[in-house]
Design brief:
596 residues, Rossmann fold, L-fucose Isomerase, Chain A, domain 3, five-stranded parallel sheet, alpha/beta, globular, 2 domains, 23 strands
Length: 596
């Protein structure tokens, strides 16, 4: 099967070296320094950042320095041909602002003005950012804290941080554009997040919405529209690597015998192949005579309705969701897919944001229960300790919790983490599989049967919980909570976990508390969370999410990121002295990135 999932190429970053246009001595004296700045940025980005397939990010430099409008136009034409979606303008000197600025409406823009005394790079930076603001084309400003010598090619640490944060978020924006969100089924049990809002996807993300009825899965099973050889390989892999748990969940009259459970395994493995093929296509199907089905839907993210029309009759989608969201399967270690449980497209979008910023798998979970220290002691007879001493949030849901979320991958210090697939070892993939038990589905919930993954996330992993919500009259808003997974006393975990559900994966989460009223205690975080679901990404990526949200003109209504780390377009400073209220006003004024 092809490893190229989407139509087109990965977006490139265009570097625009701008220069003082005055010839006869001034421009000539600056050519080398200006182009060296551009080359330094290329070196940083290409050596640090990778696309989701593991290849290095590609940059394109304008054919010449840009001193006048004709050179700006030539650069824009080159960038269009090269597939540039993100631009960074660099200069050590004064330039003609309105002539040299990036005027493309949908590219995400930054400008680095060199902090040096010999030439007024900072003056150009201020002037061109004012031009961007005046013309309604928000741009991110990059200005180093310390003065540098004119000949240096080194990029200061603070400038590197902003370049990388901008580039990661900008590439996420450009990567989403033109791709699809695929709904398999429709609205799940009245969950509003699965009422897919096409205007949001089109106007804010530049994506299209595709939809197929769940019956398409049955049609493909019935008519044999899947790779039979791959199916046998996948089924053998599942039998060898996915250990089945004893059914201690269902009452006797609802338990399936081994033959029934084996039949469920055959069904859900076949279903997994078909859902993947629906998302990205499969050239093997064309060889089999199914050219239309081979195309797929160019889906960078998808959602599966499941409950209830499907799960009242067929085996549930938990295996499909969990395996596709993981970084490994019968094909080996590979990049994860984004597949939202219950077709919650808003949580699927949050998962997509985290994935594109980190290239790692994302955990989908119910933000299920706040456990106070007092409640834990009452129920278990024991006190909470360590990070969990002030209480914790139980993240648990049947379905799309990636197996990477078990925390059985390790960073260089041996601590739990979730890695880009190219850094995951075979031993780590096996450890994630070994940490997972596949429990027979609770047939009071899932009448058709199936299996649900069961694991416990290792404590000590830094992570970020994020949720996108739609509010009528306001539009989309983002919530962010950085924190850590925590380990509990095994006896405490067992009592609390089994009180909730014996057959689903659990992550115990403690947010970082601050003076903000939303984060004054763990209860406040749970109480102010805007929906029943959350997406959990490994690492503290709140600052990157804030930058990404500002590019898309999505305000952030709740976060615990330090104000020193917040990085938004420079024109946001014109909307008031309070960063968060200014964010709302700026997003409202500029409107969606792809508004018509």
């Amino acid at each position: 099967m092809t490893t190229k999932r989407f139509q087109g190429q990965w977006p490139k970053i265009g570097i625009r070296p701008t220069i003082d246009g005055r010839m006869g001595g001034v421009r000539e004296s600056l050519e080398t320094q200006t182009m060296n700045m551009a080359k330094s940025v290329v070196s940083l980005l290409t050596s640090t950042l990778k696309y989701p397939d593991g290849s290095s990010v590609e940059c394109v430099i304008a054919d010449s320095t840009i001193g006048r409008v004709a050179e700006s136009a030539a650069c824009a034409e080159k960038f269009r041909k090269e597939g540039v979606g993100v631009t960074i303008t660099v200069t050590p000197c004064w330039c003609y602002g309105s002539e040299t600025m990036d005027m493309e409406q949908h590219t995400v823009k930054a400008v680095w003005g060199f902090n040096g005394t010999e030439r007024p790079g900072a003056v150009y930076l201020a002037a061109v950012l004012a031009g961007h603001a005046q013309k309604g084309l928000p741009a991110f400003g990059i200005y180093g804290r310390d003065v540098q010598d004119a000949g240096t090619t080194e990029i200061p640490a603070d400038v590197k941080e902003k370049l990388l944060r901008f580039a990661k978020a900008g590439l996420a924006v450009a990567t989403m554009r033109g791709k699809s969100y695929l709904s398999i089924g429709a609205v799940c049990m009245g969950i509003a997040g699965s009422i897919v809002n096409t205007d949001f996807f089109e106007d804010y993300l530049g994506m299209r919405c595709e939809g197929v009825d769940e019956v398409e899965i049955i049609r493909r099973m019935t008519e044999g529209i899947y790779d039979k050889d791959e199916y046998q390989k996948a089924l053998a892999w599942a039998k060898a690597n996915c250990k089945e748990g004893e059914d201690n969940i269902n009452r006797a009259d609802l338990k399936k015998d081994q033959a029934g459970r084996d039949k469920d395994w055959e069904f859900i493995v076949k279903m997994t192949l078909i859902v993947r093929d629906l998302m990205i296509g499969n050239p093997k199907l064309k060889e089999m005579g199914f050219g239309e089905e081979a195309l797929g839907h160019n889906a960078i993210a998808a959602g599966f309705q499941g409950q209830r029309q499907w799960t009242d009759f067929y085996a549930n989608g938990d295996f499909t969701e969990a395996i596709l969201n993981s970084s490994f399967d019968w094909t080996g270690i590979r990049s994860p897919y984004i597949l939202a449980t219950e077709n919650d497209a808003l949580n699927g979008t949050a998962m997509l944001f985290g994935y594109l910023l980190t290239n790692t798998a994302q955990i989908f979970a119910d933000v299920r229960t706040y456990w106070s220290p007092e409640a834990v002691e009452r129920v278990t007879g024991k006190k909470l300790e360590g990070l969990a001493s002030a209480g914790m949030i139980h993240l648990i849901n049947s379905g799309a919790a990636t197996l990477d979320g078990s925390g059985c991958q390790n960073d260089k210090d041996g601590k739990p983490t979730m890695k880009p697939f190219w850094n995951i070892t075979e031993a780590e993939a096996k450890a994630c599989l070994d940490a997972t038990t596949w429990m027979p589905a609770n047939r009071e919930y899932f009448r058709g049967g199936g299996f649900s993954s069961k694991f416990l996330t290792r404590g000590g992993m830094p992570c970020t919980m994020v949720r996108l919500n739609l509010v009528k009259g306001l539009g989309p808003v983002l919530q962010i909570a950085e924190g850590w997974t925590v380990d509990l006393d095994p006896a405490v975990h067992k009592i609390l976990d089994e009180r909730t559900d014996k057959g689903w994966p659990t992550t115990w989460f403690v947010p970082r508390l601050t003076d903000d009223s939303n984060f004054k205690d763990v209860y406040s975080v749970m109480n102010n969370w805007g929906a029943n679901h959350g997406s959990i990404s490994c690492g503290h990526i709140g600052a990157d999410l804030i930058t990404l949200a500002s590019m898309l003109r999505i305000p952030v209504c709740m976060h615990n990121v330090s104000s020193d780390d917040i990085y938004r377009p420079s024109s946001w400073n014109a909307f008031g002295m309070d960063k968060e209220s200014a964010d709302y006003r700026a997003c409202q004024t500029y409107g969606p990135l792809y508004k018509k």
